[in-house]
Automatic annotation (TrEMBL):
The lineage of its organism: Bacteria, Pseudomonadati, Pseudomonadota, Gammaproteobacteria, Moraxellales. It comes from Acinetobacter tianfuensis. Residues 216-293 form the WCX domain. This is WYL domain-containing protein. InterPro entries: CBASS_pafABC_assoc_protein, WCX_dom. It comes from the Bacteria.
Length: 298
C-alpha cells in the first residue's frame, strides 16, 4: 500500500506552524492544538516529543502548556525547521522562503496562523513580499478585488483553516480579503503612510479570526447515538447549536461557517460518527475528498 502524501504535507505544515508559535513566545496547550488541527491529543503529544529532542521545550506545571526557553526565542531559522521538527524528509526547498518570513522576529507579528495551510504558500510569494513590506512600513496598498479597485491599509496576513486572507482597513472598516482574489495595482495613492489603529492591533493580537468570514452559511450535521451525549456537552464545531434530538438517539446539529475547510476536516476527523446532512454541495465535496484519499492509498 502506498503512503498518502497529503498526510505527510499536513504533518509538515502542522509542525512548522507549532514551531512558529513557539518561536513567537506563545504557550501552547495540547488540547487547543488538537482542536485547531483536527487531530487527537495523542498526535499533538507525539509532535512535542519529536521536537523535544531538538529544542529546549519547557512545560508550565499548572497549565501543562508547552513553551520555548526564553533564551531561545526568535532564534529558530527557516533552514533549521525541518531538522528541529524531526521531519526533515517532508520539507522541500520551496518551503524555506515562507518559513523564513514566519520565523523572522521582525515579520512574524504580521502573520496569523490557525489550522492547516491547504493553500500552498509559495503561490503567494510575490504578494507576501509586497504586502508584508507595506504592513511593516505602514503603507497603503491598492489592489483589484473581484474586479473592483480597493485602497486599503494592510494590517496582517492570516492563514485560517486552509485559506490565506489579508486583514485590512478599507473605508474605515476592518475587512478580510482572500488572497486568491487579490491583484495588486500601482496607484499614486498606494504607498501613503498611515497610523495603525491600536484597537485593531489589539483585536488581531487575540488570535480570534472568526470575523474574517463575512459571508457565512449553515451546515447541518448528524451525530451518531454513541457520541450524542459528548456533542451535547461540548462545542466541537464552529458556532455549534443543537437542532433536534432524534428518536434513535442521534443528534442533529447546525454549524455556521464561512468556508468549507472550516468544517470538512472536523467531520472527516470524527467520521463515521459525524455525517453532513446539508448542504448537498458540501456532502458531495466530502465524498470526493474521501474517494481521492482512497485512490491515493490503493
Amino acid at each position: 500500500m502506498k503512503e498518502n502524501p497529503s498526510m505527510h504535507e499536513r504533518l509538515a505544515e502542522r509542525l512548522a506552524c507549532i514551531l512558529t508559535k513557539l518561536n513567537m513566545g506563545m504557550k501552547l496547550s495540547v488540547k487547543d492544538l488538537a482542536l485547531e488541527f483536527s487531530v487527537s491529543t495523542r498526535t499533538v503529544s507525539r509532535d512535542f516529543d519529536r521536537m523535544s529532542g531538538h529544542l529546549p521545550l519547557l512545560q508550565d506545571e499548572k497549565t501543562k502548556k508547552f513553551y520555548l526557553d526564553p533564551a531561545y526565542l526568535t532564534k529558530i531559522k527557516a533552514q533549521e525547521t525541518p531538522q528541529l521538527s524531526g521531519m526533515s524528509h517532508f520539507y522541500t526547498s520551496a518551503d524555506i522562503p515562507f518559513l523564513h518570513n514566519m520565523l523572522d522576529q521582525q515579520t512574524a507579528q504580521f502573520y496569523g496562523l490557525k489550522g492547516f495551510a491547504y493553500e500552498r504558500a509559495e503561490q503567494y510569494e510575490a504578494l507576501f513580499q509586497a504586502v508584508g513590506s507595506a504592513i511593516q512600513q505602514c503603507q497603503q496598498i491598492a489592489f483589484l478585488f473581484k474586479g473592483e479597485l480597493q485602497l486599503a491599509q494592510p494590517y496582517r496576513l492570516i492563514q485560517l483553516q486552509g485559506c490565506w486572507y489579508l486583514a485590512a482597513v478599507c473605508e474605515g472598516n476592518l475587512k478580510s480579503y482572500p488572497l486568491s482574489h487579490i491583484v495588486l495595482q500601482q496607484k499614486t495613492e498606494a504607498g501613503a503612510v498611515f497610523e495603525p489603529d491600536p484597537m485593531i492591533l489589539a483585536q488581531l493580537q487575540t488570535g480570534d479570526y472568526d470575523w474574517l468570514y463575512q459571508d457565512t452559511f449553515e451546515v447541518e450535521i448528524k451525530v451518531s447515538a454513541e457520541l450524542a451525549a459528548y456533542f451535547k456537552q461540548s462545542s466541537v464545531l464552529p458556532k455549534q447549536s443543537i437542532k433536534a434530538e432524534l428518536n434513535d438517539g442521534c443528534l442533529l446539529l447546525t454549524s455556521e461557517v464561512g468556508h468549507a475547510m472550516q468544517i470538512l476536516p472536523l467531520v472527516q476527523f470524527w467520521m463515521p460518527a459525524l455525517s453532513i446532512v446539508q448542504p448537498e454541495s458540501l456532502r458531495q465535496e466530502l465524498k470526493g475528498n474521501l474517494e481521492r484519499c482512497l485512490q491515493q492509498m490503493s
